[in-house]
């Protein structure tokens, strides 16, 4: 009798320990019978997880948390927060333990502070605040449709316009200021809407117009029995209001509205241009991706946005937040219009709970340490110090036949498996350097000088993993900038891979993390206004208040930091290598030039220059030399480069389950078919897509597709 079919679990090799691949592993291990179906091993270069979002505790500097990147999670990150909340629900730390609950680990913030570093601009930073909701991100609230976004923007604009000028606070006062041709066209648009079955404009008398009553009725119509139901009717309803908004705004700007309300005038202008663009380009039916071949600013200009609005703080800050610049050059902003517009509308109109959240400590301990422990307890294997070198396609089939891996270290005698975490004040954390006591020759300065997170790092052995023996499937979570060598044979076999590698653009990020003696409120001279924001037209435009992390660090009482700040931004590709000194020079220039833009009380009395004594330095260095005690960083390794979505890039991306090789699945914010934008939510969505494609299970992914009108 011949033996029956094999029932062993499928072996899954996961390369890369970033948020995308770990989300895939998390989703697979959520399946009730996953152990019967899969045997999962994660292979990670270096000693820690987290990818571009990783952080580590510097055990030589009071166990302070040193991070890479800009760790702000927006309230629309439903999939990312659902994962984080599930991790905290399952790990169930003891009451009173540090960061025991999700609400302790993530701090809600309702305001962004947007300012400029231009010394000639004396206007105070703009505090953009949005009211908090009762729910939490990750609750699975329904995703607004593209049409709903347009409707919301349009009604908001119509509500705001009479408030932009004190002498023209009614529509009866505003409409007569239009050009005659524009005013005469309006009734024709209303008649056309009536011909489409829209009743909102019935009864309008051009000879005795009641403009205010008309607009009240039109706005209320979207919620009544006569609300437009088809796409054609909705567009017919919107066109008279859009016409009204555009010409009214133009008239009020001519009367000085931009001088009295510069930010809201800009916001209304951008809102109306967005509505016009959605209607004109049919995005309510096609989705935002239909305009990804254009730059967002160009698209808004084409649909009527004023040049002043295109250069405004809110729009420049949107590009800065995603570091959307060609080659990292601040003078060359560029972003795929659909991807960035989708993110902007979800950020401001579809968030749950607060506008955004900041981690109470480094993301390493807030997310990646508990996620690692949960996955390990579930039975996932981890192989640290293993770097992917090469993927070998099968010569006869569309599959990967082998993976070449470089093992970077030998474990010390008596160490069977590398244990990556340390505890700081009872909190499991990743160290900022390997735990050398677990490594052969770990006390050797030569070994300690190696950057084990670099692809170029040496190795002690080359290991070949073979399909059918060591793995059956692969989840690839390593981004294209680090795959030029490993995926070269895939690109030779499949032109889509060649296009992916050629058209995935990335930039280097850089930043400075500062520990200061005064509290944040003392630096401001008032209570804290916001937890994050942008100081534009500077080399380090993004900032975050990380002061809550101090309590989880190991500072002695005499050197306790009152505030912790993170500054970050893009580093032009033409810059020097990513060593610390040049970034430190950039941070020094920033602090000399722009301290008052962020902290009004941080300057020396009677001068604009930063008071260097405010920087915490246990060694007591003088002046700018105190920067040597701070954490200056740059993402010089290929795997750490920030993916940017330039116009046209999304068409070259490959979906999580569409690699062209039957046993290869993709995860990460560079994967196509989701947000097409680098952020935590995009990485998690791609990981869930990989898990769904691999398992065949109907894994739900919130906001995966734009909600569009079928007709």
From TrEMBL:
<dbReference type="InterPro" id="IPR036188">
    <property type="entry name" value="FAD/NAD-bd_sf"/>
</dbReference>
<dbReference type="Pfam" id="PF13450">
    <property type="entry name" value="NAD_binding_8"/>
</dbReference>
<protein>
    <submittedName>
        <fullName>NAD(P)-binding protein</fullName>
    </submittedName>
</protein>
């Amino acid at each position: 009798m011949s033996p029956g079919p094999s029932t062993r679990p499928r072996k899954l090799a996961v390369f890369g320990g970033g948020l995308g691949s770990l989300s895939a592993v998390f989703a697979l291990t959520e399946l009730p019978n996953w152990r019967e179906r899969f045997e999962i091993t994660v292979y990670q270069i270096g000693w820690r997880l987290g990818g571009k979002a990783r952080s580590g505790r510097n055990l030589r500097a009071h166990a302070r948390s040193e991070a890479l990147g800009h760790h702000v999670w927006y309230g629309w990150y439903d999939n990312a927060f659902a994962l984080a909340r599930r991790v905290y629900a399952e790990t169930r730390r003891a009451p009173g333990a540090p960061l025991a609950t999700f609400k302790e680990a993530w701090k809600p913030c309702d305001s962004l502070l947007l300012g400029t570093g231009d010394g000639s601009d004396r206007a105070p930073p703009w505090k953009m605040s949005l009211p908090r909701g009762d729910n939490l991100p990750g609750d699975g609230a329904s995703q607004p449709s593209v049409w709903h976004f347009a409707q919301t923007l349009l009604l908001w604009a119509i509500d705001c316009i009479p408030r932009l000028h004190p002498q023209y606070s009614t529509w009866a006062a505003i409409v007569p200021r239009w050009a005659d041709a524009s005013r005469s066209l309006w009734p024709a648009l209303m008649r056309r809407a009536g011909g489409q079955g829209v009743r909102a404009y019935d009864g309008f008398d051009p000879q005795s117009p009641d403009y205010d009553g008309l607009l009240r009725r039109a706005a209320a119509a979207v919620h009544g029995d006569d609300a437009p139901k088809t796409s054609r009717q909705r567009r017919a309803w919107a066109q008279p209001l859009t016409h009204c908004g555009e010409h009214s705004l133009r008239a009020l700007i001519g009367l000085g509205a931009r001088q009295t309300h510069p930010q809201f005038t800009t916001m209304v202008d951008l809102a109306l241009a967005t509505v016009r663009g959605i209607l004109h380009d049919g995005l309510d039916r096609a989705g935002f991706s239909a305009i990804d071949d254009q730059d967002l600013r160009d698209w808004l200009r084409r649909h009527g946005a004023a040049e002043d609005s295109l250069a405004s703080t809110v729009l420049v800050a949107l590009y800065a937040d995603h570091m959307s610049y060609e080659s990292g050059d601040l003078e060359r902003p560029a972003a795929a219009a659909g991807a960035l517009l989708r993110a902007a509308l979800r950020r401001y109109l579809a968030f749950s709970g607060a506008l955004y959240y900041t981690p109470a400590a480094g993301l390493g301990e807030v997310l990646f340490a508990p996620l690692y422990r949960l996955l390990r307890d579930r039975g996932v294997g981890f192989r640290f110090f293993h770097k992917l070198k090469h993927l070998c396609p099968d010569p006869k089939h569309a599959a990967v036949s082998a993976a070449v891996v470089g093992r970077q270290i030998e474990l010390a005698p008596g160490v069977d498996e590398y244990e990556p975490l340390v505890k700081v004040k009872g909190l499991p954390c990743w160290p900022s350097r390997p735990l050398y006591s677990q490594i052969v020759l770990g006390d050797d300065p030569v070994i300690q000088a190696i950057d084990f997170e670099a692809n170029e790092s040496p190795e002690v052995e080359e290991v070949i993993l073979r399909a059918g023996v060591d793995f059956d499937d692969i989840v690839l979570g390593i981004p294209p900038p680090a795959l030029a060598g490993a995926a070269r044979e895939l690109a030779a076999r499949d032109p889509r891979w060649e296009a992916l590698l050629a058209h995935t653009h990335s930039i280097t990020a850089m930043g400075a993390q500062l520990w200061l003696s005064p509290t944040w409120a003392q630096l401001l001279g008032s209570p804290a206004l916001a937890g994050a924001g942008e100081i534009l037209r500077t080399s380090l435009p993004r900032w975050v208040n990380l002061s809550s992390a101090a309590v989880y660090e190991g500072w002695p009482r005499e050197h306790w930091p009152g505030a912790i700040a993170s500054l970050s931004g893009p580093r032009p590709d033409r810059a020097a290598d990513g060593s610390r000194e040049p970034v430190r020079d950039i941070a020094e220039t920033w602090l000399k030039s722009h301290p008052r833009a962020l902290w009004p009380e941080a300057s020396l009395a009677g001068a604009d220059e930063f008071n260097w004594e405010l920087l915490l330095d246990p060694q007591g260095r003088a002046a700018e030399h105190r920067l040597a005690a701070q954490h200056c960083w740059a993402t010089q390794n290929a795997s750490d480069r920030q993916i940017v979505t330039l116009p046209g890039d999304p068409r070259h991306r490959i979906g999580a389950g569409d690699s062209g090789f039957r046993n290869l699945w993709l995860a990460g914010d560079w994967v196509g078919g989701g947000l097409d934008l680098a952020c935590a939510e995009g990485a998690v969505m791609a990981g869930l897509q990989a898990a769904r494609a691999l398992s065949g299970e109907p894994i739900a992914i919130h906001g995966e597709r734009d909600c569009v009108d079928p007709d």
